[in-house]
């Protein structure tokens, strides 16, 4: 644990010192932590000898995904969705299912996976995470319409894909919960995620219970921790609870969302980078070049360059979105942190194809972080920002 902490601290220091230059070049903090974990892991230097069964892996992944879904939910309150929903709606309601199906088809025919496992793989890899292409969503020269599309899509698709992953994983025999029990966990998670913030926000409006202004971010943190604790105690699905709680806070307490935004983003970023470091340490040279056949590499490349681009090409028909922005949106669908955690859920599920699925998931994410984090600045500089927000 001390070696992991020291490695994280050193990489974080290096990442922050080069962050200004990285924001203007193909350098990337995400790639730094991924490659850092790869080099420091058991397959190369052995400084951070972590295996998938270590408790720190599951705990860190769980906490990080909870934080990601909570902050993602706060980006997509109902009011935000009503303002400009057409393009994100196309990407979510048509592009996401099509990406899932196309990825499943590729997995079945390129790798030979059974159909159920192929669709599970498609569901795990369907969500996107523009944190790994931050120059696209964080630069003013990028058209606001495109930034809004990618931000809303990435904020919602993690939560939309999760129930599908859980249902398919249960169908494959990878969880003790099945049928009504699984439905109960999902519904209970959503209820906890909605009711807890509503109750806390209602209490905070009472004259004698108002939070001090400079402590309001901690009130939002307390809501998240309470949802986490209740979901854990009741066996409700804590990830859907986190997502529902974030949306509820954004909808009924927009002031708290604004106060929490910077603090929440920094906390989530720290947890993500730590999880990426651990994820990189799980990947060894043998993992990539001996344990994955050439058909797995073919699938991984096609999953990045064909599945999402074709799905969004269909989704954008008749949308009026400029072609350059369509191409940017089709390319910048990086496989991010949600896919990492969903992949770990599959690995620990015990299903017969778990190891093969995790290898394919890890390879796609590895290639995605390298490819998307290295091309975002180049593409951002070529985009025009004069397009109005729908």
TrEMBL record:
Boundaries of every Cation/H+ exchanger transmembrane domain copy: 11-374
Intracellular or extracellular location(s): Cell membrane
Entry superkingdom: Bacteria
Keywords tagged on the record: Antiport, Cell membrane, Ion transport, Membrane, Transmembrane, Transmembrane helix, Transport
Keyword Phosphoprotein: no
Cleavable signal peptide: none
Main localization category: membrane
Transmembrane portions of the chain: 29-48, 55-71, 91-111, 186-203, 223-249, 270-288, 294-317, 329-351, 357-380
Nucleotidyltransferase keyword on record: no
Family annotation (Pfam families): Na_H_Exchanger
Topological category with respect to the lipid bilayer: Multi-pass membrane protein
UniProt xrefs under PANTHER family: CNH1P (PTHR32507:SF8), NA(+)/H(+) ANTIPORTER 1 (PTHR32507)
Identification of the protein by name: Cation:proton antiporter
Organism, scientific name: Kocuria oceani
High-level lineage: Bacteria, Bacillati, Actinomycetota, Actinomycetes, Micrococcales
